[in-house]
Amino acid sequence: METTQTAVSAAVREHLRRLCLQEFPCGTGSWNKSRFLPQTWRAWRELIPREEEAVNPGEETVEALLGLVRSPHSPWALLEDSSAEDRFLKELAIQNPLMFKDSFLYTYFRSLRVVDKQVSLVDKDLLKFVKLEELILSANRIKEVNAANLPPTLKVLELYGNKMTSMECLCAHPPPGLQHLGLGHNKLLGPMESLYVTSDHWPNLVSLDLGFNDLTDLQSMVASLRTLQYLRLLVLQGNPLALVPYYRGFTIDSLSGLCVLDDITVASSEKHQFRGLGHSGDLLAHEAQLVVTIGNVRGVLDSSILDPEPGPQGPFITYSYYVTYDFVEDEEGEGDDYGGVLAEVHPPLSSSWSHSQPCSPLLDPLEIGIVRPSPSTEQLGEDILEEVIEETEDSVESGPESLSQSGELAESLASGGSAPLPRSTDSAEELAKLRPHLDPRLLPSPGTVLFSTVRKPWADVIPCGYEMQHTLKDLVPLKAFLLSGTTVTIVEEKILSWPVSVPPSPDSPLPAKKGKGEKDKKGKKEKEEKDKKGKDELRQDPPILRVLGSGLVILEPLLAGEPFVSTVCNFGVVRTLETDQLTSARARKTKTKVPALSGGRLLTGS
Q1: pLDDT 10s digits, 24-63
Q2: Is the pLDDT confidence value at 384 over 60?
Q3: Which of 127, 288, 320, 547 could form a disulfide with 455 if both were Cys (CB 3.0 to 4.6 A apart)?
Q4: DSSP string, 332-375
């Protein structure tokens, strides 16, 4: 069933009706009828000498009527969000109500603001506003605009926050004198959109806002914008194309007349820094690079203090802790070509952590930033680009390592070396085995991959020392991901280990044959060593995972031009004074009695 479309002219008429310009205290009526008597009758009345101006009983003076609409306590006062133009029309309807005819209104309006009125149709009645210069139609439901219905006198046209998917409809009969075009927060998508921002359609355009759409082709867009010789203000932030490296430098160098880009004034130093970059478009990376950095985890409860001491038959329990976050998956890349690089860094640890109060798991700091290479004052291009490409290829060739059955990395990074983290899809079989133990918060959302820091043992301050660079080619899903944010989770991994049971050796060996004594003695020795090794081996159960805290990190500022997002995640209280006292007591006990194995003897030192 088709819904009724609301036209712009209908919304304007409805707005004028709500102003009540023909009702008390505006318009004409018993409250001011003597002011509008026929001229002959009024001329006769003016012959009567009066000491002061007076009105008939039951009528109001103009000043009194104006006071009714100006006073904030009056029931006829305008709403607080009313525009200055509404106030002017209201007062004019009191001072000279006979002027209010259609011919006056169509010639009076030079600016129309129809915002958030559910408008979906730009109708031909707009052409009646013969002096209209500014038309604001933001926050409506407009999908297409018939440009033939736009007054040719327009200089400003704003269509922010609508549902437009293409600018093609505006280019059929564009207003020739348009100086500002605002199409931000729509759904413009596709490489063809660059064909509709040329001087053939907008010869006098000074300001253009295409922010927060789904435009991806920076080079084609900039090539078309070069034809706009009067363009001085440009907004492209919020589009996927603004996430690529060198976006700002390439745009500034390509559009020499630009004064403001993304609401930031273009400085002369920027023009000098990025000189020559506009001619290296084919060499620039057509992908986004973002770096995720995770610092320390504080306030985690040491769960081992609640476990009993293990017996000779086990279980021997170990705990480790790590942080996970989800990140968008690059659909255009191969599964093994994910541009992730892990590097161990060692931030300084804080020594002022107090145990006297209940503690919350804190993740500080978590930073996610867009890679913006710093340009040199000379030519920017081949040297930097080749270095970035070589680093990316090296990280791809290294490949991700798979998880062992215990869920830990195959090799330890304790020495400070670097190695890539496994992708969630690489351990699909392990995830299937662990599914009964998994919290739903440990599963990545659709279209994302789950990343985690290296497992670390418990400490007052657990240093994650994590840095991962994500390189993505498919920019539209990346924009959607940044709008939705990432979920950060602190996970405790508990592993139970048991001694491997070895079949007992026979009490008495078989009778040895003559001449075989040395051989039997050697076999017996090997069997004894094998039995001893079996007693030292431990069998590990699948890890038991417990979520200690989880929260959403807002990433939308990255789309708005911020270079990075930094936050401290507080996940609530899990440590208390009692548990901290148990931890301190165990630490004192460990210092008092420290076992050490030296020279085959068990030594105990105080």
Answers
A1: 988 888 888 877 766 555 555 554 444 445 567 778 888 9
A2: no
A3: 320
A4: TS-GGG---EE----PPPPS----SS-B--EEEEEEEEE--PPP
Q: How far apart are CA 163 and CA 184, in angstroms?
A: 10
Q: What is the pLDDT of residues 551-582, one digit of tens each?
A: 999 999 999 888 889 988 887 766 666 666 66
pTM for this prediction: 0.72
In this prediction, residue 531 carries a pLDDT of: 55
In sequence order, the 6+-apart residues with CB closer than 8 A to the CB of 308 are none
Between the CA atoms of 446, 451, 455 and 460, what dihedral angle is there, to the nearest 10 degrees?
-90
Contacts of 119 (CB under 8 A, 6+ apart): 6, 7, 8, 11, 137, 140, 141, 142
Residues with Cβ within 8 Å of 467's Cβ and at least 6 positions away in sequence, in order, are 291, 292, 293, 294, 342, 343, 345
| CA dist., res. 569 & res. 553, Å (int) | 8
CA dihedral (418, 422, 423, 428) in degrees, to 10, reads: 180
pLDDT tens per residue, range 345-365: 333 222 222 233 334 566 666
Residue type at position 17: R
Contact 112, 136 (CB under 8 A): yes
The residues that bridge with 538 in the sheet, in sequence order, are 499
3-state secondary structure 525-581: HHHHHHHHHHHHCEEECCCEEEEEEEEEECCHHHHCCCCEEEEEEECCCCECHHHHH
From residue 104, alpha-carbon distances to 101, 131, 472, 563 in Å are 5, 11, 57, 52
The residue-averaged pLDDT of 274-295 equals: 86
With residue 294 as reference, give the H or E element that holds it. strand 288-298
% helix, strand, coil for the chain, step of 5? 30, 20, 45
For 44, 159, 417, 418, 472, the CA distances from 411, given in Å and listed in that order, are: 109, 56, 10, 10, 27
Q: Which pairs with CB-CB distance under 8 Å and at least 24 residues apart come from 39-48?
A: none
Radius of gyration of the chain (CA): 38
Quick one: which of 297, 304, 299 has its CA closest to 358? 299
Token pair, residue 175, equals 């207003």
Torsion, CA 181, CA 182, CA 186, CA 189, rounded to 10: 40
Q: Which residues contact 553 (CB under 8 A, 6 or more apart)?
A: 325, 366, 368, 485, 486, 487, 488, 565, 567, 569
- CA–CA dist 218, 196 (Å, integer): 14
Task: Find the helix or strand (DSSP H, E) in which 70 lies.
Answer: helix 62-70
- Report which DSSP code applies to 289: E
CA distance 322 to 458: 10
Number of Cβ atoms within 10 Å of the Cβ of 379: 14
| Most confident by average pLDDT, 203-207, 246-250, 368-372, 581-585 | 203-207
Name the residue among 165, 158, 164 with its Cα closest to residue 179: 158
DSSP H/E element including 209: strand 207-209
